[in-house]
Amino acid sequence: MLFLQKFDMDKNQLSKELVTWLPKFIQKHYVAEYEVLEIHESPTMLSKLNSHYIKLLPNYSSWEFSPDILGVLRKKSDSTIALVLINRAVSGLSLKEIGELHCYAKLAKANFAFLVSTSGVSNEVNILLVDKPIKDRLLNFAEDKTITIFTWNEDTKSADKNSVLPIEMRNLF
Amino acid sequence: MNTQEAYLYGLMTGRGHIFAANSMVAIEFSHTNEYVEGIAHCPKCGFLATKPKSSDKDNKDLVCKNPACASIVNGDVKKRYNQPEGTLESLLSVIIPFLKSAIKGNYEISGNKAMTLLLIDFYENKEFFSQLREAFSPAQSFDSFHIPKSIHEASQINKIEFINGLLDTSGFANAGGWLNRDGEKGHGRMRAYFQIVRNWSMPVEIDNFLREYFQLPIQTIDWGHPNIRDGNLAEFYGDEKTASWSREHQVKFFPEYYGIFKFRVSTKQSLFNELLQHNLHAVFKDKQDWFPPSKFGIKQVKAFHPGEEDARIPLPARRHVNAFWQLNLFMGCKFLNAIRSKCKYPEMYELNGEDINAFSTTNLFYQQQSQKLHDDIFESYKQKKDKKSSTTVARKKRTTPEAETYPPLVEFFGNHLTKKYSQSVETFDTSAGNLNAFLKNKATDLLDTFENCERFRIRPDVVSFLSKEKRLVFIESKVTSLDLKALGQLVGYCLVAKPIEAILISTKEPTPTFVKILKANKQLLEYETGKLIQIATLKSNNNVVFTEI
User: Fold this and answer.
1) In angstroms, rounded to a whole number, what is the distance separating the alpha carbons of residues B472 and B501?
2) Are B19 and A138 a contacting pair at CB < 8 A?
3) What is the span of the domain harbouring residue B187?
4) Residue A150's CB: how many other CB atoms inside 10 A?
5) Which residue stretches of B126-261 are H helix?
6) Helix (H, G, I), strand (E, B), or coil: what is residue A89?
7) CATH code at A68?
8) Is residue B116 in a domain?
9) Quick one: average pLDDT of A150-171?
10) Distance, CA of B255 to CA of A81 (rounded, Å)
11) Quick one: B351 and B450 in the same domain?
12) CA–CA dist B164, B168 (Å, integer)
């Protein structure tokens, strides 16, 4: 059930479960568009990551940050590389975590950005994200690209559909 | 109006928000604790069993309150209710289907362990949304709503549904809130309550609504007023920096009179039933309605509290009171005002509930007593603090190196911004607690901005207020090299609060790599069109040097 996660899951365990989840998610919803090439758990700074694909991307040397999980995809239509950034937490997500991922996703021109917590978003962020102008400012890191936030259910090892924000993304979960 | 609409108005009145720009409403169902426990009854005699004050935290044993029994009762006899689970199930299987049956909208649920949020999108039902907005206009959120006029004019069935909605969002049944009273067949009188957050009109509106249309008693209103909640000034002169007294009001009632209403949130209803059954079994005959209030004398006079003048208190209640019912009167209770209007000496009635010609002398007498009580308490805290500070000086010092940067930053930005904007600028270390005091006493016109920042936990290390523009400046301080993580955190605050300036500062100069990244990607600094976060260094001489990006 929604919201029933315990606090006992540690971050590493959550990372491992998300590493398993990501390719399945892409396979399920974007199989026609993307192929999963690599998944990196707790990578070093992306600017220093030893990945052939990353080094093909413009400005990668500026990517002085480490997301918790990095997915490298190939776009089937034109073989270009696309990135998935995931940050995760076990406590309630606040503006700080959203701002941080917003910054990373904007810099790396990511195609997907997910912010995941076993505790969901904090009360105050929940209300803020109902306000469309604030939600757009906080979550949209590029035109037509938004950070997707969700609660990770430890029991089912999956995203809680009812927790997914923005709501428009729920049809993918 | 149909019953579903009346119920929705009740939900909204309790914890609703209106988002006019997106034709949406959001309704909070708060459940701060994941589990709540029911009442423990002694298996031998059926009396209430409670935890002795002396027992340690891990000891589950309770003691029967019946002096003739006094058995040890295992704490496991209490039922446990999972609030998030109960709320979610009730929303999905009862509340949403009920609302949907008559009100067209797109219903969604969001939330976390502490709160479940019901979101209703009225994009395809603009007519109803407009009617709902009008009902609460011009207010946008529950902290400033009034009971809609249409509810006062509604049928009795719809009035009941309104209260049902109000109970589901702002009503709480809590086994720990019992009064120390003896019934004919049991001890402890259980109470439920409406929890009213930051809305000073609503407690009296609810009281008067229930009294006028249902002739129901209210046991008391526990106002979030300094004289009521912090009467002994423990919070003000003690260790607490924040004024927690201002958070909420509680309208308390005995469940046995409220059986005509129902909670649709199953966990709340189950707890309410436990409280109700307990009181019915214990048999209490006195209604214990606060109205009409009793007059009081010098013994009930409370100490003067500096928070009485807090700008968050609305003007009618921004004063000294000695009894909660005085606040009911000042906040517009029609029943008390009816009595006062018939008084020969209304001023005296306001003062202590009497109608005699003695206002001037009694008032002076009360004021002197109030001041004396305050001074005695103040002196006692001062002595305690002096004693403590002589032994714990080392402990009081700031422990984080980051915090040591705040005083020089306060000084620098106070001067810098005053010159830059040619106006008075107040700058605060938000961790020092003086921001609260400033806002309370001098910056009432900034209170809303500040309250919003508090509500959304936007707390940069140092904040400046521009007195003319009424705008904020955020300063986030680090003692490590600045990086994208630190920048992103400030970006989060800025995207919501849109300060006039935002500065990310460190005692370490920004690395050439970081500067290079920002120069090549200025959009990372932009939080509003034309407004960029500035990067700066706090030098060892306490000067601040800005880095050109």
Assistant:
1) 7
2) no
3) 3-39+78-219+254-290
4) 23
5) 126-136, 149-152, 156-170, 202-214, 226-229, 234-237
6) strand
7) 3.40.1340
8) yes
9) 91
10) 63
11) no
12) 6
Residue in B with minimal Cα distance to A118: B112
What pLDDT shows up at residue B242? 58
The pLDDT > 70 percentage for chain B reads 92
Instruction: Say yes or no for a CB contact (<8 Å) between A64 and B110.
Output: no
- Helix (H) / strand (E) containing B12: helix B3-15
Whole-number CA gyration radius for chain A: 15
Residue B444 near chain A (CB below 8 Å): no
Contacts of B496 in chain A (CB under 8 A): 95, 128, 134, 137-138
Q: Please check whether residue A102 lies inside any domain of the structure.
A: yes
Does a structural domain hold residue B69? Answer: no
Do B147 and B270 lie in one domain? The reply is yes
Which pair of structure tokens corresponds to residue B321? Answer: 């009171």
pLDDT at B67: 86
Indicate whether B52 belongs to any domain. Answer: no
| Touching B: A residues 154-173, CB under 8 Å | 162-163, 165, 167, 170
ipTM of the complex model: 0.88
Q: Are residues B361 and B407 in the same domain?
A: no
Q: What is d(CA B229, CA B169) in angstroms, rounded to the nearest whole number?
A: 23
- Please tell me the total count of domains within chain A: 1
Query: Across-strand partners of A165?
Result: A149
Predicted confidence (pLDDT) per residue in B210-225, tens digit = 999 999 999 999 999 9
The model's pTM is 0.84
Q: Residue A143 is part of which domain span?
A: 11-172
Q: Does B197 touch chain A (CB under 8 A)?
A: no
In the DSSP assignment, the letter for residue A94 is -
Interchain contact, B112 vs A123, CB within 8 Å: yes
3-state secondary structure B394-461: HHHCCCCCHHHHHHHHHHHHHHHHHHHHCCCEEEEEHHHCHHHHHHHHCCHHHHHHHHHHHHCCCCCC
Choosing among B80, B82, B113, B474, which should be mutated to test the A contact, i.e. which has the most A CBs within 10 A?
A: B113
Longest dimension (CA), chain B: 81
Q: Which of residues 65-124 of B touch A (CB under 8 A)?
A: 82, 84-85, 88-89, 108-117, 119
| Closest by CA position to B64, among listed B78, B37, B79, B44 | B44
Asked if B27 contacts B169 with a C-beta cutoff of 8 angstroms, the reply is: yes
Q: What is the pLDDT of residues B300-335, one digit of tens each?
A: 999 999 889 887 789 999 999 999 999 999 999 999
- Which has the closest alpha carbon to B249: B212, B282, B224, B219? B224
Is residue B435 scored above 90 in pLDDT?
Answer: no
Q: Quick one: pLDDT at residue B295?
A: 92
Report how many Cβ contacts below 8 Å link chain A to chain B. Answer: 149
Task: Report how far residue B29's alpha carbon sits from residue B172's, in angstroms, rounded to the nearest whole number.
Answer: 11
Q: Do residues B285 and B312 share a domain?
A: no
Residue B236, CA atoms < 13 Å, CB-side half-sphere: 23
Helix (H) or strand (E) holding B342: helix B334-342
Do B166 and B261 lie in one domain? The reply is: yes
How high is the pLDDT of residue B236? 85
> Is there a single domain that holds both residue B270 and residue B338?
no
pLDDT for position B243 = 61
Contacts of B461 in chain A (CB under 8 A): none
On whether residue B231 sits in a domain, the answer given is no
Residue B512 with chain A: CB contacts under 8 Å: none
Question: Is some CB atom of chain B closer than 8 A to the CB atom of A1?
Answer: yes
Of the candidates A1, A97, A126, the beta carbon closest to that of B110 is on A126
Q: Domain tally for chain B? A: 3
Q: Which residue has the tokens 């700066």?
A: B536
Q: Which residue has the higher pLDDT, B216 or B433?
A: B216
Q: What is the pLDDT of residues B365-376, one digit of tens each?
A: 999 999 999 999
| A133 reaches B (C-beta below 8 A) | yes
CB B78 within 8 A of CB B38: yes
